[in-house]
Design a protein that fits this description.
This protein is of the alpha+beta class. It has 17 helices and 15 strands. The chain folds into two domains: about 140 residues, Beta Polymerase, domain 2; about 325 residues, Cytochrome-c3 Hydrogenase, chain B, CATH 1.10.645.
Amino acid sequence: MQLCGIDGDFVRLPGPLPMWRKEVNATQWAAAAVAAKVAGGRLVSVWGSDARARSGGFTVSAAYAIQEGLVLLVLPLGAEGAPFPDISDTYPGAARMQRGIADLLGLQVAGASDAHDTRPWLRHLSWPADYFPLRKEVSGLERFADSAEGEYAFVQVEGEGVHEIAVGPVHAGIIEPGHFRFSVVGEKVLRLEDRLGYTHKGTEKLFERSAPLEAHRVAGRISGDSTVAYAWAYCMALESITGYQTAEYADLMRALLLERERVANHLGDLGALGNDAGLAFGLAQFSLLREAWLRLSKELFGHRLMMDCIVPGGVGVTVDQAASAKLIQQCKDIENEVCRLHAIYDEHAGLQDRFIGTGRVLPHLAAKLGLCGMAGRASGQAYDLRSDQLWFPYDQLDMRMATHRNGDVAARVILRFEEIYESLRLIRALCPRLLASTPAAAGANLTVADGVGMGWVEGWRGDVLIALELADGKIERCHCRDPSWHNWPILEHAIVGNIVPDFPLINKSFNLNYSGHDA
């Protein structure tokens, strides 16, 4: 078969979504990126691995989303870690991923250093330049004195009247750290450069010290607002390796939890966006709705954010007749209130003046730079795993994807409203199916096996990927990719030409992940 422009024998990975794996050489690695792009495919992630103990060398891997499904390509680099072809010219989003590989494994892209951005991305000078946390000979528990190396070299814009505004990494609110360096003339933004990595926790190394049947708890804590998506992706990857077939009830419940997670986050964002544009009423009203939503999750599933509800082999929660009635009634109540607030937002002239045309990313730029997920759909990038691929239970629910082309704050607000309505519809459709299905013991007959598995789930922010490899009954490698890896660089483009006071609004309209991005 041929995938990503490569002929050969691809290994089909078990699981609900179509996924294939193939080992390639350097020429195929570079050609596959171009072929996937030409065919309309997306780069999902690029990562490295220390496979010296198993295959005698390092590897880099790339996952591409194409029409047929997900393709995983693995490029061996030898025991010394030979340089590998740069694919950032084809997929700009790969640039920071490749910098992360250099920080964590010491693997470099081929070619002259002046042709690539070689600044550290995750390291932040908190460990020596010759220490690579994901290599097998280190524990990841080592501690180092503060580095005396120089400061991070931000790109400078020069010219008459140009000055810089540095914001962060610590912000005047309870949000995670990120540094934003603005180059401005007056209030108009000429350039923005963001720097992340402040919440790098060594999660991928922590997986290596976790038991495969317990590591879903680690995955579920990569990002609190996406705990369901990450836990499901991890369990999907583990079940793919073991060949375990989850029960119908488990798949239905996982989808219900995922949609509840989506609604909770969209409710919070719509309130915050109203507040950032001067409508405190919006924040108050949507906060009330979100709080009611989270409280019912706590009542029915034991946790406001539904942590640890998805477990290997199934789910740890069930829905009975009474719980189903509460879920359906709440969907009705929330929908009525959201419709009322939607009309207020649409008719509020001051709000729309701040939303329309602000932070615009047009479809051609979104396609070129790889904008994905919710923000991508607001800029004409019509990708959503729930409707793109036929997998249970979404193939039974006539999932309706929301898309827009204006690519501004207004489009991202409209998209949130429409996705709330669709998620509420899906939850109402899932409840009777759950009552008609029979709960099954999670993980019955699930035994750990060696191999490679992939988990790919459409979280509320975008598609979450987990690539898992088990060897000798232990986690050899677990790579986690948040959609924000693709979208943070595009935020830099969205602010250009806008004024500095609009940045909080634009930033919130994307609501990108710090913790999940840095891992």
